[in-house]
Automatic annotation (TrEMBL), chains A, B, C, D, E, F:
Family as reported in the entry's similarity comment: Belongs to the HyuE racemase family.
Enzyme class: isomerase
GO molecular function, one term: amino-acid racemase activity
Catalytic activity line of the entry: a D-5-monosubstituted hydantoin = a L-5-monosubstituted hydantoin; D-5-benzylhydantoin = L-5-benzylhydantoin; D-5-isobutylhydantoin = L-5-isobutylhydantoin
The enzyme's E.C. designation: 5.1.99.5
Name of the protein this chain belongs to: Hydantoin racemase
Originating species: Candidatus Paenalcaligenes intestinipullorum
InterPro entries linked to this entry: Asp/Glu/hydantoin_racemase, Hydantoin_racemase-like, Iso_Racemase_Enz_sf
Gene3D superfamilies given in the database record: 3.40.50.12500
Length: 249, 249, 249, 249, 249, 249
């Protein structure tokens, strides 16, 4: 089976890291295609970044539809374009925030999130509400590190994240921590050992859940609001979307 | 004062209609700039359409920032890119769904929504929850007409909308109806007279609320998650966003 | 147009202050009638005060109905008698808590309230729930000053309010502050400059929103629970309400 | 022990009926004082009626405070002035809607309400939310009979109520019905036998719950928002409330 | 009337204490049967303990059905087996957590819970949500004392509980405290005097509420999900439940 | 890896069926141990049945702990004893209702449940709320067939279930259906083809999710309320639980 994992930002080193983590957790028979949009922001740290990144995510879904993809993963903690992506395919599509929340809820009754910048807390809060995990999240915490610091100063970033995770463990009465950024995917084991608490990271979680859905042969429902979009004309730089029907082949 | 009303789709006749309604309701001193993206879908009827349209909305905000704009309105009932747009400016930004819900809540304790296609119901439901009006909405109804039918077969569309509004009045125990599409803006008075119930339409509502906010001199908060996005590099067709700092001038 | 702004307590200096603020924010063509009940408490700081004040508010609505009023504002942060008032008129009626919440939600994703006495926090909480803004309010704070201290010791009151607002800014991760008392209406600008955060005050907010509703020509719905009360006999000091039909003229 | 049951409207026959039901269900040692305001509406069928009736309820509480009252009951299904009444006394105060909801939740997992006029549904809905029983109520139904029809045409009223209760039983998947008007108190047994489902009526429920609270020696908390109101000056017809301190004796 | 109060754990001294408190608060005509399961844990401090204890509770209900019982009380703060117990009888069944929440809501607008071990907080949280009191509870606190410490080191336990109650009073802005363990039933008055705040304890609350329900002659509804279980075969140590029909005699 | 799937009732044919489905969906390297309690009801159709079955489930967990089990599944749609089971092991434990809800939420925005008897609807409702999927479930429907009819009259049962599923598809505006009974596990494909809508069944869903969690090496958190129960004495038929410490080996 083939899983396409899409890093919605355009930082190659992050895409590579995500792909590496994904492949290392995937089952032997699973082929990981780690990809990133041709166009979009280097990192996603605001509603603006997220909104712009969404189009690139959809392009990667469309490419995947021509590449016999069995499942898709959107590897940014805001799950950009998730519902739109589901419209474009019958393959399952998962976001990494979504995946992490689901897994955390299986092994604990309360978890906290530790994310990068405080200004993205509202995005996580919105997702918790939409997916139904709002009451199961004790607190959304931010280590206040820009996303790319995870790439350029990994040691400093790690130290700050561990500090925030420690506060979460001491103050939040939780059973697990969810790491709130795709770029933290390689830190999970280290942090978990350091603070002695289960730490859930969305990239791995999404890969294994995607394999589950493939194994179950469940497909994104084409009844109701996730049906393929009605074909229509698009203008300008998006004119290539006009051939909507081709999305369905 | 100058209000930029952005039709997120690329159908000129709809932009003109929206601009016309907007100007007719605006105060004498208000200049309406009705605009639409250079790129994007002809109509918005799915998560996919909405996600793609969002980038065009942001471009129009950025243009507006170089045009002394006092407030912005996003004139599609899904309020695409609303929070991202608010990040890009200190001027107030309103969505027409948001505006319609607020106004409906001032004059009734329960309202129903009548929208175009059933598949977009979930978008309205999500917005009701996000803004806090979920309990005040009795039912989200769809007349099952494609958006562009409002342009091409207005009489047939009107008849179907009135039928659905009548069912809403009879069955939903409501005090008002919210029309769930920017393209219905010119039908409000006709429908209201026909069914004898207050009918709220978001374009007018948003114009008057925007004038209120301008009059109050309240500005989109730059503290917390609506602060200007951190400047960063963008790739590909979005490379022009890299000069993030210029957004703030 | 004529807006009747009702101070539900019977302290003339507060009515004058509210009237002054209202007139200063109103559009040139708007005539403000600032009024207060003949009967009722000097200040409203409890459920008891609020319940007693409600009758006076309704009397002022009835007077307004004989004075060609285009919209009403109830200028106490508990929004006393709001739904009852809406039954008595087709003109729009707004509460200042309601108005402030709506405006705050347009420019921020989270706000805190700073009110007078802690014992009234529960009233604000109830309103947040009823109007749908409960999740958008980070915290309800009290400066623990009696309402009339705002009249008699304005400098001391201001200092305490600014201190509480500063704590809100530092601790609550918010984008705006809502002032929780009609008597604070004149402090908005001062506080906002002092703490460098948008500060919303309900009197101004309500005036501009009321002008919006008048401009939209939307009227309080007479379908369902906001219909005119069924005429009936009243006893004792309320016997004059028996001529219910006259309310509708 | 002495329980003061206050009919918030001024229809003597209804007060008598309520008093009769109350006495018949009360324990041997319980003295029932059934009373009604000197001033107020003949029946309560709107927000306006309810708001006006609230002052009379408070007057009856104050009278009760000079009459060694052990507990109070507010016998109108909108529970008018409940929190304000609790401020005025250390004795327990119960509303009949509140009492009926509590009892229904002890013997069923879902109940429906059958009330008088449809326009008062919103009042019941608000109470369900405030008290926490919103999810336990399957449906709020109205027999569409004016309150006083219960007094003047009891047989016709009974027939309509039974019809609505029957529909509730057949359609709502419920375990019990709550009668939504104090004036229905004498119909409980008849309806219950007719439709073969537990029927809860608030007057009886409130009497027995009040006896419980008296027996427990729990008193309305004077900490926080139910503390006695701060004494202050009242104007006009409410001037007699100025001697606030005397409320506490 | 006869009330069977079931201590779900198998510690005799606790059963005796609960029986003693129950009898002391009961009305003269009420006979208390205090009982405990033959099988089960010495104390209940986990989901596991609670699940195992539930069967013993049901056995005690069945015994009660052969002993002319008028009402049942389940005297553990997790209310184990409450809905199952209600299926087995037409007599009212109350849990002590449930009873305490109801009573606390009658005399305050916000309360905090002080329970034994932190790990049981999630059980109380679940109950608050199920019964509808989640928003009325300010905080669930734990004194971090094992349940049996209440039996073996009552003075030390009392001191820790009072400390936690004091913190609740100072920090939680509440009107009352609910004690979160049946084993604390004898401490209520002492704690209340010490911290000067109403303290609610579930055993007493449940006794008086049960007397109310008996007085009201309301019975557990046999319509819908609380109907008697369908008779069926049980295997193994539960084979005696096979004669399901006999439960109904 | 070894997954122990526990049928909480004692009907061998159902255990066999569940085991067969489980094995057929499991990955090649997964060994399925399908088991049922020695003691308990033949079917689970009430709160009583569920409560009694819970002990047997826990016994099966304890047996599994001596059998190198990698994950557990509780194969009854009420997810009996789920949290208690999680306390007893570090291996992941899943319920089939839980698993089905999670999977349904990945491929649709709204789903309906079709269960056996109407009286168990409340159990499903409670689970939807606890897990966070309440808003994503359009309707809980019952085909009104006793559980064992699925074993003894499979054709008649299937027909009724398909009829109810068809109504769900036509009336509920959903993207998927969740089958609400472990005994329906073998019907999924047939029903899905018949009604042309994705049909989710919990046994398969749970197996694949369990494999995911094993692959992720996440373990049930032993911090907070899912920690191993404190060892203590148990009486009577549960005396063997006294050696609590041994559970942890």
């Amino acid at each position: 089976m083939k899983i396409r994992i899409i890093n919605p930002n355009t930082t190659r080193s992050m895409t590579d890291k995500i792909g590496h983590i994904a492949q290392s957790i995937a089952s032997p028979g699973t082929k990981i295609v780690a990809t990133q949009p041709d166009s979009g922001p280097r990192s996603i740290e605001s509603h603006f970044d997220e909104t712009v990144s969404a189009v690139g995510v959809l392009d990667e879904i469309i490419k995947g539809e021509h590449d016999c993809t069995d499942a898709y993963i959107i590897a940014c903690f805001g799950d950009p374009a998730l519902l739109a992506a589901r419209e474009l395919t019958t393959a399952p599509v998962l976001g990494i925030a979504e995946a992490a929340f689901h897994v955390a809820s299986f092994i604990s009754t309360k978890f906290s999130i530790v994310t990068t910048l405080g200004r993205t807390r509202i995005i996580a809060e919105e997702l918790l509400k939409r997916y139904g995990f709002y009451d199961q999240c004790a607190k959304i915490r931010a280590a206040e590190i820009p996303v790319l610091t995870l790439e350029h100063e990994p040691d400093a970033a790690l130290r700050l994240i561990i500090e925030e995770c420690r506060r979460a463990k001491e103050e939040d009465q939780i059973g697990a921590i969810v790491l709130g950024c795709g770029g933290m995917a390689d830190l999970t084991e280290h942090i978990s050992q350091e603070i002695q608490l289960p730490v859930i990271e969305g990239v791995s979680a999404a890969i294994k859940l995607a394999e589950s859905l493939i194994g179950l042969r469940v497909r994104t429902s084409k009844f109701g609001d996730l049906a393929f979009p009605n074909p229509k004309e698009f203008q300008g730089v998006f004119a290539h979307y006009s051939a909507g029907a081709s999305m369905q082949t």
